[in-house]
């Protein structure tokens, strides 16, 4: 009888929450970052043209932030905010091709300091020393495993660096080769038993649009593409051609996501791995007669944002309408891993909200263009702006005053600008006051872009506003 009692107590200690052997297992993070993938161009988002079955399945298992935005919708600012949890005018990366300061406190540094292995594969775009330059270990912001390049969109002739300055070539379409390396990293880490943070950073579906493998291009014929109603008639032919190629890249990446998900399951760690799928910004693709990013319209601003949780919340999908911004990702991921969030972080921690708790936001988030450049240079209509995106409204000011106001519920394609409409005056006043309050709290004086360029000591092309770089 005493022996049986001892065995009973021993089993209880081994398997009970308070037992000495029932230690908490730290979750892994697989962060899948794409480039220029706008929120509406996915099957789960209601797009019946693009084929994304694997991501659609991931969405069914995830918390879907349907109003997620890239607060400064262009490549480098998003990436800097992702790593630091800070806004662009704090970390200073509000233009492309500038360096994220080495003094920055990043998510990779925090997680490595907490016992995590950290890995980065693909497009980096945070070193500011030319797009083909080698990034040495001391400038990798806490990432240990490294198979990356600053920036390229030559997807079929792409190279990368490991730990030495010797260039290595991705075989074929680079996303497929990068995925193979990511899968092996997942297998190796699962065997090692060390929790990991892996950022898989793809370069597509960013233009050039017509370079996906031929079998994916054959899936989409321009003449069959249906356009959003806000594409002007004189640009519809070009839009259809571009979208056909864009969708081909999307479907190719969807297969990559499917392979990654299968590898997590094969390795036996899918239920203990947080998976995030998102993009650094969207793509106008001729909506409102515009191309690419930086703009405050939804095609540029809104990004996919899926969080598949680990543990007891694994596979429990739902859609939420709260906005979430770029600087919120780092604190949210650290919160999900129950790690301390650095005091340098400005973003909000949505981890409790993801688990069904209280929303940490007030329902509005700030969108910005501190200084227009490149494809949205001033000669092409580019200008500074500050705005708010809520679950329902988009409100934007430029330096001259109120510029845009959309009711995204009744006007989902943003074709009716209510700004300065007398009927919308109370709404505009309310949003304007909320924006000014947020900017004051953030210490954003909303100055001309040249003031920030001077403040951070950047040298830009006076015509394009672009920081010169070498390919």
Tally of separate domains: 2
How many individual β-strands? 14
CATH secondary-structure class of the largest domain: Alpha Beta
Approximate shape: globular
Largest sheet: 8 strands, mixed
* Low-confidence spans: 1-23
CATH superfamily (homologous) name of the largest domain = Alkaline Phosphatase, subunit A
N- to C-terminal separation?
77 Å
What is Rg? 23 Å
Number of helices: 13
What does this structure look like?
With 471 residues, this protein is α/β, with parallel strands linked by helices. It folds into two domains: 28-361, Alkaline Phosphatase, subunit A (3-Layer(aba) Sandwich); 366-456, Arylsulfatase, C-terminal domain (2-Layer Sandwich), CATH 3.30.1120. α2 packs across α8 (236-266) and α6 (174-192) runs parallel beside α8 (236-266). It has an eight-stranded mixed sheet with strand order 4-3-7-1-8-9-2-10. Strands 11-12-13-14 form a four-stranded antiparallel sheet, with helices on one face. The chain has a two-stranded antiparallel sheet with strand order 5-6. The protein has 13 helices and 14 strands. The chain has helices spanning 2-15, 53-60, 75-84, 88-91, 107-112, 174-192, 214-217, 236-266, 298-301, 329-336, 351-354, 425-442, 449-456; strands at residues 28-35, 63-65, 117-123, 145-149, 159-160, 168-169, 196-205, 273-279, 305-308, 318-320, 364-369, 385-390, 393-398, 401-407. The radius of gyration is 23 Å and the shape is globular.
């Amino acid at each position: 009888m005493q022996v049986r009692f001892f065995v009973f107590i021993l089993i209880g200690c081994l398997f009970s929450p308070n037992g000495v052997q029932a230690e908490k297992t730290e979750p892994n993070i697989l962060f899948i970052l794409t480039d220029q993938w706008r929120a509406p161009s996915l099957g789960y988002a209601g797009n019946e043209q693009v084929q994304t079955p694997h991501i659609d399945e991931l969405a069914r298992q995830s918390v879907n932030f349907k109003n997620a935005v890239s607060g400064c919708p262009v490549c480098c600012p998003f990436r800097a905010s992702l790593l630091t949890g800070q806004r662009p005018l704090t970390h200073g990366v509000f233009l492309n091709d500038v360096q994220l300061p080495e003094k920055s406190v990043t998510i990779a540094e925090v997680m490595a300091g907490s016992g995590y292995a950290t890995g980065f594969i693909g497009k980096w775009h945070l070193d500011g020393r030319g797009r083909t330059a080698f990034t040495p270990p001391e400038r990798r912001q806490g990432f240990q495993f490294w198979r990356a390049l600053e920036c390229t969109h030559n997807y079929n002739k792409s190279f990368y660096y490991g730990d030495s300055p010797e260039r290595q070539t991705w075989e074929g379409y680079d996303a497929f080769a990068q995925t193979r390396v990511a899968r092996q990293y997942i297998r190796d880490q699962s065997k090692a038993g060390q929790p990991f943070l892996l950022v898989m950073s793809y370069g597509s579906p960013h233009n050039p649009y017509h370079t996906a493998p031929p079998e994916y291009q054959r899936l989409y014929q321009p003449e069959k593409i249906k356009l959003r109603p806000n594409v002007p008639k004189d640009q519809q032919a070009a839009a259809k051609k571009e979208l056909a190629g864009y969708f081909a890249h999307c479907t190719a990446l969807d297969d990559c996501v499917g392979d990654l998900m299968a590898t997590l399951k094969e390795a036996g760690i899918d239920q203990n791995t947080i998976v995030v799928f998102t993009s650094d910004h969207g793509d106008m693709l001729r909506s409102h007669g515009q191309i690419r990013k930086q703009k405050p319209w939804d095609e540029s601003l809104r990004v996919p944002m899926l969080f598949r949780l680990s543990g007891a919340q694994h596979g429990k999908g739902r859609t939420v309408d709260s906005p979430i911004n770029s600087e919120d990702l780092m604190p949210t991921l650290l919160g999900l891993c129950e790690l301390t969030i650095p005091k340098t972080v400005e973003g909000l921690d949505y981890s409790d909200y993801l688990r069904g708790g209280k929303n940490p936001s007030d329902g509005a988030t700030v969108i910005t263009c501190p200084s227009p450049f490149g494809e949205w240079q001033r000669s092409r209509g580019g200008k500074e702006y500050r705005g708010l995106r809520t679950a329902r409204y988009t409100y934007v000011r430029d330096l001259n005053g109120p510029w845009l106001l959309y009711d995204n519920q009744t006007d989902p394609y943003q074709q009716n600008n209510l700004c300065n409409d007398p009927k919308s005056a109370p709404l505009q006043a309310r949003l304007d006051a909320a924006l000014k309050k947020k900017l004051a709290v953030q210490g954003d004086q909303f100055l001309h872009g040249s003031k920030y360029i001077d403040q951070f000591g950047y040298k830009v092309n006076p015509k394009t506003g672009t920081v010169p770089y070498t390919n």
